Amino acid sequence: MIRLQIDTKAMIDELDNKISGIKELTSPSVLNEVAKATFTITGRRFVVDLDKYAKRNPKKMHHIYEWGGIGKPESRLFVLERSSILGGNLTINTKFLPSKMPVPINPALLIPGPTGKTVSRRSIFKDKAAVMEKGAKVSFAAKRILAFADGQGVAFIAKGTTININHPGGLQTKNAFATYLLDWYTNNGNVVMDSSGFYERIQTETERVLNVTGAGVTQVKQAVQRAAEAVSGGKVEIV
Fold first, then answer.
1. How far apart are CA 200 and CA 66, in angstroms?
2. CA dist., res. 102 & res. 120, Å (int)
3. pLDDT digits (tens, 9 = 90+) for 165-220
4. pLDDT, tens only, 101-152
5. Could you give the residue ranges of the DSSP H alpha helices within the chain?
6. Which of 15, 114, 125, 183 is most enclosed, with most CB atoms within 10 A?
């Protein structure tokens, strides 16, 4: 007669390791890693979608790109920032970049006047994106004689004159970027993550590491960290 004694303690310990490993997927540290990947995955998709939207709606979005560069990635005047992550809760901030290109000159001002002169000095509206997004009134004193062209012709403004611009960039730019950002993440954030394949990757990696005897919490945590790092690359900004 053969009698077998089953080592139930070893079996229970192994099952406990597996169960603890699976539970680790909902721990704050693992969720923080998932959040890092979420920032990169959704951020990359957001800027692409915004570029397309800007091309279709230039009056709303021209201010967050350099002059003449609406919808072009290399002309963006905004950055998404991964501000903070706590327990899987991700906070995304935005930052506007300074414009470096001179403000375009109205073609009418390039036509020689009675004296044969044309407008040649160009200025840079450094805070173009931030000011136009805010939609606040802009006031400044002319440091030199300025020329403006409208439907009535060319008008000259004397040096020292206070100039008031009520709607820099036009009425449609006010809060246009902020509104699009909120709407996009509300409607598309989860959809983009669900279709990204990232969750499936975590599942596959978790199953793989837990298939090893003795594997548990540490191995799952490391697996998720590797998967997140492969996606995020440690990025804290999307330009």
1. 39
2. 11
3. 788 899 999 999 999 999 999 999 999 999 999 999 999 999 999 999 988 999 99
4. 998 877 666 666 666 566 666 788 999 999 999 998 887 677 776 666 666 6
5. 8-23, 28-56, 58-61, 128-134, 176-196, 198-210, 217-232
6. 125
- Residue 72 belongs to what H/E stretch? none
pTM of the model: 0.84
Residues in the chain: 239
From the list 138, 151, 48, 66, the residue with the least C-alpha distance to 106 is 151
Q: What token pair was written down for 190? A: 């989860």
Can you tell me the distance from the alpha carbon of 98 to that of 130, in angstroms, rounded to the nearest whole number?
9
Nearest to 71 by CA among 96, 94, 53, 91: 53
| Structural contact between residues 79 and 95, judged by C-beta atoms closer than 8 angstroms | yes
* Beta bridge partners of residue 38, listed in sequence order: none
Backbone angles phi, psi at 190, to 5 degrees: -70, -35
Within 8 A by CB and 6+ apart from 29, the residues are 221
- Measured at the CA of 104, the angle between CA 100 and CA 106, to 5 degrees, comes to 165
In whole angstroms, what is the distance from residue 26 CA to residue 148 CA? 61
Strand partners, 84: 91
Nearest by Cα to 97 from 58, 130, 68, 123: 130
Q: What angle do CA 79, 82, 84 make, to 5 degrees?
A: 145
Kindly report the CA angle at 172 between 124 and 110, in degrees rounded to 5? 40
Domain boundaries, the chain: 8-239
User: Most distant CA pair in the chain: distance in Å?
Assistant: 120
